[in-house]
Design brief:
- This protein is α+β, with helices and mostly antiparallel strands.
- Strand 6 and strand 7 (106-107) form a beta hairpin.
- The chain contains six helices and nine strands, in the order αααβββββββαβαβα.
- Strands 1-2-4-5-9-8 form a six-stranded antiparallel beta sheet. It has a three-stranded antiparallel beta sheet with strand order 3-6-7, with no helix packed on it.
- The protein is globular, with a radius of gyration of 16 Å.
- The protein has one domain (24-165): Ubiquitin Conjugating Enzyme (Roll).
């Protein structure tokens, strides 16, 4: 018998698993980082896993010409139940860029760009360190059985190049 479960039923089942099953799978994150480096290594200087596999740090990510500065560092905080839940949909498991980014000479903002650098959406602990939350209102179509950091990087690349895609449908 095959059960078809909705996202809320999957989350309900998942929360009852023991911590060693539901926690971050470091080996999986390492494999995904290696794949990201092979596919997108030309776009950044380095990619580092930290915090027990819960954080991926990308240095000097190359941005399109309309951005200044032309590179930025990126922090991807992975949720405890990754890949069931993708990163970026809340500030606690957010995707963070350096807060000094401009596009076409203007600062990125909360209301226009879903870029939370100076507003109340970005945690103070990140703001004071010069980080801004690159927010996604939702990820529809995220499939935890096949989606990974490669999809996250593709989404980031697409939304950086096409800001109107910021809300993932």
């Amino acid at each position: 018998m095959i059960l078809e479960l909705g996202e809320s039923e999957i989350h309900e089942l998942y929360k009852d698993l023991p911590p060693y099953v539901r926690g971050i799978n470091v080996a999986r994150v390492q494999a995904e980082v290696i794949l990201v480096e092979k596919l997108f290594g030309h776009l950044f200087k380095d990619i580092i896993i930290s915090n027990g596999g819960k954080r991926v740090f990308i240095t000097d990510f190359l941005l399109p010409p309309e951005y200044s500065p032309r590179t930025t560092n990126i922090i991807i905080n992975l949720p405890d139940n990754y890949p069931l839940t993708p990163p970026g949909i809340s500030s606690s498991v957010g995707i963070y860029f350096r807060a000094n980014l401009k596009r076409n000479g203007r600062e990125l903002t909360c209301s226009r760009d879903a870029f939370h650098g100076t507003c109340g959406h970005c945690p103070e602990r990140m703001k004071v360190k010069g980080w801004a939350w690159w927010c996604f209102a939702r990820f529809e179509g995220w499939d935890p059985t096949k989606d990974d950091l490669v999809k996250i990087i593709l989404i980031l690349k697409d939304t950086i190049e096409n800001p109107e895609l910021q809300l993932i449908e």
